[in-house]
Amino acid sequence: MSKKQKKTLIRIITAAVVFAAGIAMGFVFPESEDVTSPLIYVRTGALLAAYLIAGFDVLLKAVHNIMHGQVFDENFLMMIASIGAVVIGEYSEGAAVMIFYQTGELFQSVAVGKSRKSISDMMDINPEFANVERNGETIEVEPDEVSVGETVVIKPGERVPLDGEVIFGASGLNTAALTGESAPRGVTVGDEVISGCVNTDGLLKIRVTKPYSDSTVAKILELVENSSESKAKTENFITRFARVYTPIVVIAAVLLAVLPSVIIGLSKGDWQWGTWVYRALTFLVVSCPCALVISVPLSYFGGIGGASRHGIMIKGANYLEQLNKAKTFVFDKTGTLTTGSFAVTEKHAEGISDNELLSYCAAAEQISNHPIARSIVAAAKLAGDIPKAENARETAGCGVEAVVDGREIAVGNARLMAKAGARVDETEKAGTVVYCAVDGEYCGYVLVADEIKENSKAALSGLKALGAEKTVMLTGDRSVTADAVANSIGLDEVRSQLLPDGKVTALEEIYAAKPAKSTLVYVGDGMNDAPSLARADVGIAMGGLGSDAAIEAADIVLMNDDIANLPLAVRTARKTHRIVMQNIVFALGVKVAVLALAAFGIGNMWLAVFADVGVSVIAILNAMRCMRISQKNLT
After folding, report:
1. Does residue 214 sit within a domain?
2. Can you give the pLDDT at residue 635?
3. Of 332, 442, 565, 576, which has the fewest Cβ atoms less than 10 A away?
4. In terms of domains, do 506 and 491 share one?
5. CA-CA distance, 519 to 386, in Å (whole number)?
6. pLDDT at residue 163 above 80?
7. Strand 389-395 to strand 538-542: parallel, antiparallel, or no bridges (unpaired)?
8. Using an 8 Å Cβ cutoff, are 327 and 354 in contact?
9. Residues known to be catalytic
10. Residue range(s) defining the domain that contains residue 328
């Protein structure tokens, strides 16, 4: 509990004690109810003191807002209702209104604080300093003063200040603040590390690869700071509703105080001002829209905060609301449903040995940065030395040609084989087939495959259980590879051999066919999928741990790259929407009922206090359920 909340609690307790003393006087000294008794001044003074202790800040806010043209808010309603009760001699009820109102406000503050904590924990990832090596010394500087290429020293217990590559040491990195994962991630020389993680044990030295402004931590902090700015349609509706609703109920209260008294007074001579003013004041207390104005934003805020604890970063309540209506899910393949880590799974040599085939392929592929090329080179290094290649040249979309040990080597697809004059029967297998020709003679192929992510099938099953009507994969891969992945994990449809612009065209076609009033979600790894992520109703990026474009392009980011968090995100959105609807129906239902009772004189101000503060507290407690989410149970 914050200092401000503790002060409010002390004020509430003090006011309640003074209030209780005033009420007790009516029982202990019945004569204090007598207007001729001096004790009535003591009793009245105690009740007024309780009223002022509890409500002086409400009165100040109301006056301040009135002076600045913001008349119709909850502070104005509380001020008018409580002062009116005091004026007509209902001191105890005027004090009770303020005490219970402040109690409701305290509940709101605590609830918002708990929701905010999940998100504010993310703000703690911001590194305060960086130990950089300069001129043979290690000096402490601000992270934004470190240049790309400099070496940063990270001691055990310190936070990684910038993105970089490990050049010395081995350790474990605690990524819990970023991904929600409790187990440290081991790193050693050559591994990439991202800012915001905590070094758990060994000394590390990293070479900085990005300036602070482009680092992972800077992008995440920007995301977190902006997460509450995009309101859901329901929030905007409630805001507009309150602006119209509040003036209407104030006018209705004035009419309720005046018209019946005038009508009865003119017809019977009994004006009954006190009775109808009391009913109007009760009407005002009931009409305060606190439960709606507080609980709806708090529900979305709680949902965003609860999701962030699991490494699901949602950029705004509007995306959470859109995700609730998702029926169509479209996926990229590589890095999303598959690991994106290629490996040599098969070697088929003709006329030479398997090891010779692999070494020729690796020698030529050393000049390429393509993931498939790197996987072939990595496999060849495990088998032995790689011969030196000369005059290497790469043909985009085809492969690589080079001279190895005086022989012309061509490594690539069937088009490159045709160019090299080598006749080849194309092989249809699940994976990428890399053919090899030596001096114009075909000598075999290497099969490189991308592994399916462990949780992909479970994630698809989870989405189907949540009512997903269509799941589609869009990929540039060959149809045989794409079909194998789709059949393995249970996708409804697959579209293969697509160029980046072809993905957007396919997405448009799928979008046009989606169920009415539903939304389409695109899930990709962020870099090549940026156009599709932007076109979808909700773009979800895999790649919080490495993809530069993920955070900018997507509406939601799965920070730990775990596709299993996708159903969790959808179920969080569904739970949040369900709680929002519960609060709206409950709050409006109770208020309409009590407003009717108050208008006919059946309900008193104590019932009005429940209809305002009681309903607000119940709605707030219900909204706090949005924070409690888990993989196992979201009901």
Report:
1. no
2. 36
3. 442
4. yes
5. 51
6. yes
7. unpaired
8. no
9. 332
10. 317-337+453-554
